[in-house]
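Appendix B. One record, verbatim.
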Amino acid sequence: MSFTQQTHHGVTFHTADAFTAAGGVAHGFATRLGGVSTGPYAQLNLGITRPDERAAVRENYHRFCAAIGVDETRLVMTHQVHEDGIRVATAADVLPDLLDPIDYRVDGLVTNTPGLTLTIYYADCIPVLLYDPVGKAIAAVHSGWRGTSLGIAPKAVAKMTALYGTRPEDVLAAIGPGIGPCCFETHDDVPTALEDRLGPAVRPFCHPLEQAAGKFTVDLKGIIAWELRQAGLAEEHIDTLPLCTACHPELYWSHRKMGDQRGNHAAMIALEG
């Protein structure tokens, strides 16, 4: 299982090869390339809360949705709060206007409704897309370190199982672009919180920095993959895009490197009807 970086109509994005091979789903992880925004939001800013030109954001959505093959009028989006709330997405969650405010706070979405496009955002935190090609169900979660410590990705798998009869061994997982252990340096509060909630098995993913006492590097993508294996996913069904958002400003924005003067990427997934 691997990823493909591709460009359609000038928009550059990543797709998970296993999702494509399984068929029945449209999806993509955005880069910052291919939109019309300018300044710190150049080019493909998909963040609806950024102080970007609204007309530019609309055009960016139009371009990205067309590039990955989803219906821009059937998006279900998240207002992310770095917790573990997961919403069951229905047609009632599609906003009359994609820039309307969202009246719920969640970091994950699940559905088995064809055509609905689950949409999550990232600019260092880890986007995870899940696809059950047998039971025809999908999920999308935003997993920063807090969400990872709360197990949001395996909770999405459990919700798919409870609602749609998904078998974890059938689920394909794509862990997308996000900050890597090369750039995610923290104080001991992050490794401590992760171990308190997830147990000592996370220790191999948290490494002390020799040159900076009391600081660590943390491999969030590695922890998420471990969590999904614990939830019953087959190792060969979990793939991780190794690209680090902080290392590649030519492709991504990074909150850690750029602060609030940046755009947001989106990851989207939709069952084909």
